[in-house]
Amino acid sequence: MALQRWFVAGVLLQLAVFACDGKDGAGETTNPGLGGSGGVDPGTGGTTRATSPNLGGTTGAAGGSTRATTTSAGGGGDRGTGGARATGGATGTGGATATGGRTGTGGARATGGTTATGGRVGRGGATGAGGAKATGGSTATGGVRGTGGATGRGGAPGTGGTTANPNAIGPNKTCGCLTSSGDYSGNPLTATIVVNNGQTYDGGCKTYVTKSRASGGLGDGSQEEGQQPLFRVNAGGKLVNVIIGAPAADGVHFYGNATAENIHWLDIGEDAATIKADATVTLDCGSARNGADKVFQVNARATWTVSNFTIKSAGKTMRENGGSCYPVTAVFDHCDISGMSESIFRTDCASSKVTISNTRYSQIGDGLVIVGSSVYNSSSGNVTITNVQKY
Hints:
The chain is mainly beta. About 5% of the residues lie in helices and about 30% in strands.
């Protein structure tokens, strides 16, 4: 019976509590129980008054704003502290739901701190420009274009010269070796210098001489037959930049196709040059003077072209061997010929040919060309004379 009365009293007390509304943060405690500690508990995150007739317990569940009423044996007691106010913590779950009370709001929703932005998106720095595009400097102009100047005016090797108007009369190039660079170290020559196929002998504008055969040389340069040449140029050889002094013996012999440039005879000797075997010979640039008879002798079938040459004081410029008919083709182009006691070309062969062009001449004794007993000063048959000038 006693228990039943207590139970009824507890129910009545519960109803009485529900009938009362408390103020935020302050409540009354009515505890008819034994040793109970009722109290007003402002629950965390709310303002709800809690009334608890618990026996010796604390009321006010954390995190709720709901007024909780728990009826159990015992009542009264001290005022409950209501617990600490909910802070919302992380992600505020609203706290544990208080039994028998209103659901707590959980306080302000936790923001979890400012959302990390991760900082500014890395830009990677400004895109490297690689520096200004290299221009390589100003385009080199190479300086003022070289005019080349006058081609080889002489000295070693002095093989060229400035070519003038091809129709000009007389030499149209300035040849090399107009002056000597000194005496050849092997003077006086006692043996012929041989230039073979594929070789070029460059005399360096040195002056070459020999001595009489009686003295162990090649000849004294007189008209005595049998003298030896200073140079022998075999087929395929080339002789350049040579000055031949006195005595010159029998000059230069050609045996086959050959080329000679910048050859000067200060003394013609027996003959300046002789073709001794069938050949095509080109002699370009040079001079010859002081001969008692012929300058060039032809003793074989040949084509001989003499150009840019100055010849002074001899009997005749070229002679095909007397009484022979190989035949010969002789060409004189851009030459200056003077002081010939007989002619420029002489042959006894009617089938031989001669061309004299772009050439000036003076003091030619019998005529420009003599074929047998015929003399020609103009073109006729195998004789061609064009663009020449007498002075």
